[in-house]
Amino acid sequence: MTDPTTAHATHAPPAPLHIGPVVVDPPVLQAPMAGYTNYAYRQVVREFGGAGLLATEMIAARSAQWLETHRGEHPDRLWGVHDEPRPLAVQMWDNDPDNLAQVGRRLATEFRVSVVDLNFGCPVRQVTEKAHSGSWLLRDPDRVGTIVRRVVEACDGVPVTAKIRLGCADNCRTAIEVAQRVEEAGASCLTVHGRVAAQFFTGEADWEAIAAVKRSVSRIPVVGNGDIDSAETAVMRLRTSGVDGVMIAREALARPWIFAQAAALLRGETPPPDPTLDEQREIVLHHYDLVCRRFGVDQGTLLMRKFACSYAQGLPGARDFRGRVSRVTTQEEFLDVMRTNFPRSPNAQASPGQRACTSLPA
Ligand SMILES: Cc1cc2nc3c(=O)[nH]c(=O)nc-3n(C[C@H](O)[C@H](O)[C@H](O)COP(=O)(O)O)c2cc1C
Predict the structure, then answer these.
(1) Cβ 120 under 6 angstroms from ligand 1
(2) Model-wide pTM > 0.85
C-alpha cells in the first residue's frame, strides 16, 4: 500500500463531495449503523471532527407513520435529529414508495435534515424476506428507481441518496443497473458497499466492483464503502478507486477519531495519534454519560455494554474486558469494570501536545 504520510506531498486535498446543495468536506462519511449510530455516538464523532457527513441509524418508514400520531415526540432512532448540527443524513427503509415519500417529506420539511437516505443494502432477514425491503429490492432495479423518484419529488429540494450493496447474491449482481436507475430517478448521491447481501460481512469488499459502479454513472457522485480499517486505507481508497467519497462503519465504532485522522492525512498533515488508553477510557465514560442522560442509568448501562465492547476491539486485554462488561447490569458495576478492566498500557502516558482528544469534555 502507498504510504500516504509520504504520498501526501504529491496530492492536493480531494475536492469536497457535493450532495445536491450539501457540501461534504472532507468526503469521508460516517456510515449508518442500526443500534449504534445514535445521537450519543454521533456526538462523540462530531467532537473529534473530520467526518464530512454523519448519519443516523436507519428508521422503518412504516413505523415512522408513528410520527403522524405522536406529534412532538420522537422515536429513539430520531433522538437528537431535530436539533443537532448539520450536515446530517437520516436513513429509512421500506418497499412502498408512498410510505417512503410521506416520511421523507416529513424528515425534509419538519426535521430539516440535510440528506434523506434510502436503504437498499440491509441483508437482515426481517427487512429482506419478511418485508421485501433493503437489499431485497436490488433484484428489482425498476422498483428502486420508482421509489427514488417518488421520494425525490416529496422531499422539497432536500437531496435524496441511496445506499446499496453489489447485489442480492453472486448470481444477482445488479449494482450497475440499480445505480443507473437511481441516477435517472434524480438521486443526489449513491453509496456502494462492496459486498453482495448474501455475504453479510464475510469475505472482502470488492473495490474493483465499486469502481465499476462509479464508472457506470455520469452525473451523481459515488461513495465507496467496505473494510476501511484505518485513515491510511480511507485515503488510499479515495485516491485509487475513482470514487467521490468514502464511508466508514465498523472501524469507527472502535475508533471514532478515525475521521479526524483521515481528514488530517487528506490535508497533507501528520494524523493525530490514537488517544492513549487512559484517554480512551474517558471517551467511553463520556459516551456513557450521553447515553444515560437520554435513557437513564438502568437502560443506559445495558445499552452501553455493546459500545464499550466495540471501543475495546483490538486493544490489549480486550477479551477479558468484553467478557466482564457484557455482563454488567448496574452503573456501579459498569464504572467498576471500566476502572479495573478497561485495557491499560504501562507506557500509555500521552506526551503533551500529542493528545488527539483534547476537545472532549472529561
Ligand atoms: C451493526 C451494524 C449495523 C448496520 N446498520 C446499517 C444501517 O442501518 N443502514 C445501512 O445502510 N447499513 C448498515 N450497516 C452497514 C454499514 O453501514 C456498512 O455498509 C458496512 O458495515 C460496511 O462498512 P465497514 O466495512 O466500514 O464496516 C450496518 C453495519 C453494522 C456492522
Answers:
(1) no
(2) yes
- State yes or no: pLDDT of 361 exceeds 60: no
- 145 pLDDT exceeds 80? yes
Q: Are residues 239 and 286 in the same domain?
A: no
Asked if the structure places residue 141 within a domain, the reply is: yes
Please, what is the angle between helix 207-216 and helix 175-184, to 10°?
A: 40
Q: How many domains does the chain have?
A: 2
Whether residue 90 is found in the same domain as residue 32 = yes
Which residue out of 56, 124, 193, 247 has the highest number of ligand 1 atoms within 8 Å of its CB and is therefore the one to mutate?
A: 193
Q: Are residues 259 and 320 in the same domain?
A: no
Q: At 74, is the pLDDT very low, low, confident or very high (cuts 50, 70, 90)? A: low
Per-residue confidence (pLDDT) for residue 193, from 0 to 100: 99
- Identify whether 357 is a catalytic site residue: no
